[in-house]
Design brief:
- The protein is an alpha/beta fold.
- The protein has helices at 7-17, 19-37, 72-80, 105-116, 131-142, 147-150, 161-176, 192-199, 218-226, 250-262, 286-293, 325-343, 349-359, 361-392, 400-403, 415-425, 445-458, and strands spanning 87-88, 154-160, 181-186, 202-207, 209-210, 215-216, 233-237, 266-271, 298-303, 315-321, 408-410, 427-428, 434-436.
- The strands form 4 sheets. Strands 2-10-9-8-7-3-4 form a 7-stranded mixed β-sheet, with helices on both faces. A two-stranded parallel sheet has the order 1-12. It has a two-stranded antiparallel ribbon with strand order 5-6.
- The radius of gyration is 28 Å and the shape is globular.
- The protein binds ligand KET.
- Ligand KET is lined by residues 71, 91-92, 161-163, 189, 191, 237, 242, 270, 272, 303, 305, 311, 316.
- One of its GO terms (molecular function) is pyridoxal phosphate binding.
Amino acid sequence: MRPQSNTTTTTNINTFSDPSFSSSIHRRITTLSNHLLNPHMASDNQSISVSPTASSHSVFAHLLPAPEDPILGVTVAYNKDPSPVKLNLGVGAYRTEEGKPLVLNVVRRVEQQLVNEASRNKEYLPIVGVADFNKLSARLIFGADSPAIQENRVTTVQCLSGTGSLRVGGEFLARHYHERTIYIPQPTWGNHPKIFTLAGLSVKSYRYYAPATRGLDFEGLLEDLGSAPSGSIVLLHACAHNPTGVDPTPEQWETIRQLLRSKALLPFFDSAYQGFASGSLDIDAQAVRLFVADGGELLLAQSYAKNMGLYGERVGALSIVSKSADVASRVESQVKLVVRPMYSNPPIHGASIVAAILRDSDLYNEWTIELKAMADRIITMRQQLFDALQSRGTPGDWSHIIKQIGMFTFTGLNAEQVSFLTKEYHIYLTSDGRISMAGLSSRTVPHLADAIHAAVTTV
Ligand code: KET
């Protein structure tokens, strides 16, 4: 069929009428047809070699099977267990009294509204994400009256939940900050060392938890951060420390702030549980606000996975507080250079839900009520588990269950006792003895208490 005449086809016609081009095409077609009809007849210099990928040997044959993730792997094991009494207390994900995942009513309502808005489209977001989401997220954590926000000293970039925000922040620091060492608490969320190492930072730890008291090792913390080289980065859990459930008191936070500022250490807050520690968004932001109020610089990774139940939507933000509006805008331009080659720009849906809730005072109030209900249910579970162990006369002091804060109890069970719980009682938790209190219900507390009692009396 003769092609239509337009510029492109004219070029094609000219190309095909070029004798050298048409003879090269002819040669290749002949080679290909010879090979297909009888591969042995193809002459040596025209044969199509068999690619190594077509052989039976895999180029990945040398790979060793990687271990499952210490936290998410617990869910993998749980899913394989056919027992009807199995209980997943591994991952920090909220469950209802019926043991079901929860989508907040306010989230469902906003999602309906978003779906019905015909004017919405699926265009790419800017590299920094939904502008309103960023503004409102900064206000949520720093406070609406924060001087840093009023002075335009805050750069906020929508990222892929808390993990993505930490990673982008880590890479930004590895590229542009003069000191490449980050101090993380011992213990901390298991993903922290991997995130920061892969971001290009060197990871060291500072003492945080005293197993003997099941409380904060405040002396150890001050000593370790006091001897960190000036300028080092310090990872701090904004509230509801994971996995210990132990937070500094407001007075201890003030001492930590003075130490960091006097040594020019750079704070990097991880805020994954705002609202889950006390039930109040403002109270849980107090430590962060203390550090912003002194006019100093800091980074903050924020997640809406837990407090809005948006786990799989991957909604979060990285905020960087700088000394001036001018620096903040240059910081933003450089953060964009980190994001663009990594994932280009963030997803729309989850951030639109958050922005809609934070923008509207009725929706916001509804959210705070649902959030408080989640936090309260966890506190009730703490009391019920403590009472159940008391009534069984389980040896040991279990008061840390009601003293610890947030989603987790750091039980003090050792790795053998944990594997006993899993093998004998089908209760799944991380090997460090952390249990997600949000995965418990009044119905399952007795089963867990029986298991803990058996573990500490027999293992
Ligand atoms: N920081 C902390 C302290 C944290 O516990 C988590 C998640 C995150 C950040 C990241 O959450 P994201 O979903 O990226 O916003 N912790 C729970 C889930 C997990 O391990 O991924 C957990 O510890 O069970």
